[in-house]
Amino acid sequence: TLEIIIRPPWWQTVWAYTIYAFLIGLFGYLLYRYLLNRQFELQEANRLRELDEVKTKLYTNISHEFRTPLTVISGMGQKILENPKKWSIEGGQLITRNSNYLLQLVNQILDLRKLESGSLKVQHVQSDIVSYLQYLMQSFHSLAENKDIRLHFYAEEKELVMDFDPNKIQHIFTNLLSNAIKYTPEGGDVYVRVEKDEGGRARDEGGRAKDRSTRSTLQIKIRDTGIGIPEDQLPHIFDRFYQVDDSSTRKGEGTGIGLALTKELVQLLKGEISVKSQVNKGTEFNIQLPISNEGPLQETARDQIWGTAAGTAKEGTGKNLLNKSTAVADTNPLALIIEDNADVAKYIFSCLEDRYQLLWAKNGRQGIDMAFETVPDIIISDVMMPEKDGFEVCQTLKQDVRTSHIPIILLTAKADMDSKLEGLRHGADAYLAKPFEPKELNIRLEQLIELRKKLQDRYRNTTSFKQQSGNIEDEFLKQLNQVIQDNISDENFGIQQLCRAIGLSRTQLHRKIKALTNKSTSIYIRSIRLAKARELLKSTKLNVSEIAYEVGFSNPVYFTQVFSEEFGVPPSEMR
Ligand code: ATP
Ligand code: MG
Question: What stretches of 362-452 adopt beta strand conformation (E)?
Answer without folding.
Answer: 378-382, 408-412, 430-433
